[in-house]
Amino acid sequence: MGVKGFVEGGIASIIAGCSTHPLDLIKVRMQLQGETNAPKPVHNLRPALAFQTGSNIHVAAVAQPRVGPIAVGVRLVQQEGVAALFSGVSATVLRQTLYSTTRMGLYDVLKTKWTDPASGTMPLGRKIGAGLIAGGIGAAIGNPADVAMVRMQADGRLPPAQRRNYKSVVDAIMRMARQEGVTSLWRGSSLTVNRAMLVTASQLASYDQFKEMILERGVMRDGLGTHVTASFAAGFVAAVASNPVDVIKTRVMNMRVEPGQTPPYAGALDCALKTVRAEGPMALYKGFIPTISRQGPFTVVLFVTLEQVRKLLKDF
């Protein structure tokens, strides 16, 4: 039964991740808007992570307008083509295989062990604890794929000469390990673990809690309507809780470390402080609209698919 939970969660997560990948890509692009790495010189049209030795213009001197998710998506399609919406989708598949399969399976195992046999329910505190444990372990395992996914999604915003041009997630991981060292595969891992703990605890625990509340109060019967409602509510909670950590994680993972030069960020705290000082506290909620736009559909697809997969595998 334990292995079955991992398989069911993994299948549902891969389907949900691939179907909402374009929204996740737009979120990453928005989170990198306005990023400053002064005193690095940059090209005057692309302020973030576009280091040009031939230009005397610095990031701090360039004011760039911030655009919304629709504008980001339209510009992405216009400049890079429709296929660019699925840049890094191979990394998403690997990430969901490693990270989500682990967190969903572990949460299911802990939920089974910690559920009160008499009432058939688990207290909210235990749900949150199960989510924190499952999310942290899953994120530690899936971090290399997460780093590769962020880089592949962000690559198109750089000038052609500065792009990494990873061919696939395997190529990305191999080149990172060869060029930057194996430890680069776990860059930002503390942020990934923290975010995953918040997302898993808020998403899975709140889904179960909302579902129980709806059924106990007789608002709806157990079915698709209840699953969709509880999923959207859980997705909103997860987005609010995780977005600040997600912004910092994206920037730390995407930063380019040149040989012999000081990295743009010394770590997560340094990135957070520089981001708030340069762009204000609300910069930590950049990409929130596409985040909630993705978390809602992702959570719905995740749990609806999970229920269907469970029905298909119930005899195994």
From TrEMBL:
<comment type="similarity">
    <text>Belongs to the mitochondrial carrier (TC 2.A.29) family.</text>
</comment>
<keyword id="KW-0496">Mitochondrion</keyword>
<keyword id="KW-0472">Membrane</keyword>
<dbReference type="GO" id="GO:0006839">
    <property type="term" value="P:mitochondrial transport"/>
</dbReference>
<keyword id="KW-0677">Repeat</keyword>
<dbReference type="InterPro" id="IPR023395">
    <property type="entry name" value="MCP_dom_sf"/>
</dbReference>
<feature type="repeat" description="Solcar">
    <location>
        <begin position="222"/>
        <end position="312"/>
    </location>
</feature>
<feature type="repeat" description="Solcar">
    <location>
        <begin position="122"/>
        <end position="213"/>
    </location>
</feature>
<dbReference type="InterPro" id="IPR018108">
    <property type="entry name" value="MCP_transmembrane"/>
</dbReference>
<dbReference type="InterPro" id="IPR002067">
    <property type="entry name" value="MCP"/>
</dbReference>
<keyword id="KW-1133">Transmembrane helix</keyword>
<dbReference type="GO" id="GO:0005743">
    <property type="term" value="C:mitochondrial inner membrane"/>
</dbReference>
<dbReference type="GO" id="GO:0005310">
    <property type="term" value="F:dicarboxylic acid transmembrane transporter activity"/>
</dbReference>
<feature type="repeat" description="Solcar">
    <location>
        <begin position="4"/>
        <end position="113"/>
    </location>
</feature>
<dbReference type="InterPro" id="IPR050391">
    <property type="entry name" value="Mito_Metabolite_Transporter"/>
</dbReference>
<dbReference type="Pfam" id="PF00153">
    <property type="entry name" value="Mito_carr"/>
</dbReference>
<keyword id="KW-0346">Stress response</keyword>
<keyword id="KW-0813">Transport</keyword>
<protein>
    <recommendedName>
        <fullName>Mitochondrial uncoupling protein 5</fullName>
    </recommendedName>
</protein>
<keyword id="KW-0812">Transmembrane</keyword>
